[in-house]
Specification:
Elements: H1 2-10, E1 20-22, H2 25-38, E2 47-51, E3 56-59, H3 86-94, E4 103-106, H4 114-122, E5 126-129, E6 133-137, H5 141-150, E7 155-158, H6 161-173, E8 179-183, H7 186-189, E9 202-206, H8 213-219, E10 229-235, H9 241-248, E11 252-263, H10 269-276, E12 280-283, H11 286-300, E13 305-308, H12 311-319, E14 324-326, H13 333-346
Parallel strand pairs: 1-2, 4-5, 4-12, 7-8, 7-10, 8-9, 10-11, 12-13, 13-14
Antiparallel strand pairs: 2-3, 6-11
Helix pairs in contact: 1-2, 1-3, 5-6, 8-9, 10-11, 11-12
């Protein structure tokens, strides 16, 4: 997006003076910098910078400091200023389909929305964080530590970032036993990237061609009898697709419900009112869909679009009665962001 801003600013006459609206401060500064580099007049110019996040800086003679003003080591660093053009902002937003400034509700557990929020804000999309789920200890968690100490499995199958975090804590408590991991997708695999202690005992050895449980069950390698034993530390709410698919292929699967994904018990009324105004809500689990319908959509007559991380959440959204549902063919952050963009465009 910064490249688009750069191209737009450079193509316009520096003499023009109008307000430019950038959805993110980074793009604003990129535009200021390039306009400064292309402006041969070093005198301050009138500039009004309006950011989509609600902050506005306006001055009839507003000087903007730019790194580009440092011409060389022998030239005095100057504080430059430049006129920014509304046409450039329009060109930037046009490439995104006019979605900059629109709002999206993100619904994962508090503290787990950061990557998605960052990706959306880079596109100029405003985020309303409404955590609709919380993770709780599952009934089989104590067994997980014991099993890891006593049994070596051919595969340990992990199907979500939360399942990965729960497993790693149990693995540490069990004394870092040798473990070969199959993860459902790159997002789950990234949880294992920062392991330090016991790293040589753990191998992330397989990721399926598509990030869902059915494909993982169909593609998990089975080279010999040693691969047959599979440990599946799962959410209490997870479907049986994975163990059913693996069992049908001759694997022996031990499922341990090590955690549970639950709906939040209540939301602040003001937060609900704000969320209900957003044209798009995002979902990464059927539990989040259920909570949204019960706490927001069902009470505020919300008629927006649902952008789901994958087909499992999308099916839940359809069953819950939501009408406008978008999801990527292959789950993951990039595909999810694309689906959110499509959902926003459908609401324009």
């Amino acid at each position: 997006m910064a490249i688009m801003a750069v191209a737009a600013v450079q193509s316009l006459p520096p003499a023009a003076r109008r307000t430019i609206v950038f959805p993110h401060s980074e793009w604003c500064y990129a535009g200021v910098r390039l306009a400064t580099e292309s402006n041969n007049n070093n005198s301050p110019s009138s500039v009004s910078i309006s950011l989509r996040n609600g902050r506005t800086s306006t001055s009839s003679r507003h000087t903007v400091g730019c790194a580009a003003a440092r011409r060389s080591s022998t030239t005095t660093t100057k504080t430059a200023s430049c006129a920014l053009l509304g046409d450039a902002a329009a060109a930037v937003d046009e490439g995104r389909g006019g979605i900059a400034g629109m709002s999206v509700v993100v619904t994962r557990e508090r503290g787990k929305n950061g990557k998605l929020i960052k990706a959306l804000e880079t596109l100029g999309i405003q985020c309303v964080e409404v955590p609709l789920i919380e993770h709780r200890t599952g009934p089989d968690l104590p067994k997980l530590v014991h099993i890891l100490r006593e049994v070596e499995f051919g595969w340990i199958v992990v199907t979500s970032p939360e399942a990965a975090a729960v497993f790693l804590n149990a693995w540490k408590d069990a004394g870092f036993p040798k473990a070969r991991i199959a993860v459902v997708g790159t997002g789950t695999g990234q949880v294992f990237d920062n392991i330090q202690e016991g790293r040589d005992q753990l191998q992330v050895a397989f990721t399926p061609s598509k990030a869902n449980a059915k494909v993982l069950a169909a593609e998990l390698p089975k080279h010999d009898e040693r691969d047959n034993q599979v440990l599946y530390p799962a959410s209490l709410k997870a479907s049986n697709d994975l163990e059913t698919g693996l069992t049908d292929r001759g694997f022996s699967v031990l499922r341990l419900n090590s955690y549970s994904t639950e709906s939040v018990q209540g939301l602040d009324d003001n937060l609900v009112a704000t969320a209900a105004l957003a044209p798009v809500a995002t979902f990464a689990s059927p539990t989040a869909v259920k909570a949204w319908v019960e706490l927001v959509a069902g009470t505020r007559r919300w008629d927006g679009a649902a952008a789901c991380i994958g087909s499992t959440s999308a099916v839940a959204a359809q069953k819950a009665g939501l009408k406008k549902i978008f999801y990527p063919e292959s789950p993951g952050l990039d595909g999810w962001v694309d689906s959110i963009v499509d959902a926003l465009k459908s609401q324009i």
